[in-house]
Amino acid sequence: MQIIDGKATAAAIKAEIAEKVAKRVAEGKRVPHLAAILVGHDGGSETYVANKVKACAECGFKSSLIRMESTPEAPLDPADLMAEIERLNADPDIDGFIVQLPLPRHIDEQAVIEAIDPAKDVDGFHPVNVGKQSVGLPCFHSATPAGIVELLRRYDITTAGKRVVVVGRSNIVGKPLAAMLMQKGPQADATVTVCHSATPDLASITRQADILVAALGRPAFVTADMVADGAVVIDVGTTRVPDASRKSGFRLSGDVDYEAVAPKCSAITPVPGGVGPMTIVSLMLNTLQAAENRD
Ligand code: GUN
After folding, report:
1. In principle, which of 116, 190, 260, 278 could form an S-S bond with 224, CB 3.0–4.6 Å?
2. Pocket residues for ligand 1 (CB within 6 Å)?
3. H or E element, residue 195
4. Cβ of 65: how many Cβ atoms within 10 Å?
């Protein structure tokens, strides 16, 4: 059984990006600049955005963190968020930006995503990018699926002709990953099945997977009886579960019962240190692409 080390792979890719940025600078080109809007104080979002800002520094990018206050007593006016998005759309120094999700419930997330200029939508969430991806046109790919595909590629795990089962149908992981893997081409050409919470007899389907992707956000949901011997298991889950033995008071739990499932697998991603770091690296690659698109 091989542990797929997303952290080490991400570090290698960040070093490659930093080299490309140094080359850009030597050629007199602009340093890529990523901005992130963080609304309110969601604990997970604070961590993710801090990690994105840190990754920008490691890649030699400029980054800007824009914090917008929102509390139940003083909720952010959605018009103020839209105005900030318009400002970033128009700012020639910004190559790409993200609005960290989830947003407070009173804000229409889809309207926010659709307000972002697709040319700066380095999350790949805008319907223009989603649509281009689904028909195989060049676009910004959603970061987590792109990270998974790159991780498989770097571990020489081919997808062509394989049966891939994705558990989870979210707009940011399940659906775009299925679209990417069913395309024609290298690191694609898979036979993809998407399952979800309303799929009857889920285990009978997941057991058919050569590559099983768990992306539903339920800790330890995938148990050993759901996995075929020799399968590759990709765990996208990162749920915070209370853990009094940790200083933070929580630990991150994947969607896979790792201890029980790992011995059956040919390869598996751990949580943390698997898919998570690759998601951030994909965002960096999209930002570099956004800068190159404007050269
Ligand atoms: N929340 C969880 N994952 C993501 C992501 O990839 N991008 C943004 N903007 N928010 C997220």
Report:
1. 260
2. 98-101, 123, 143, 172, 279
3. strand 191-195
4. 15
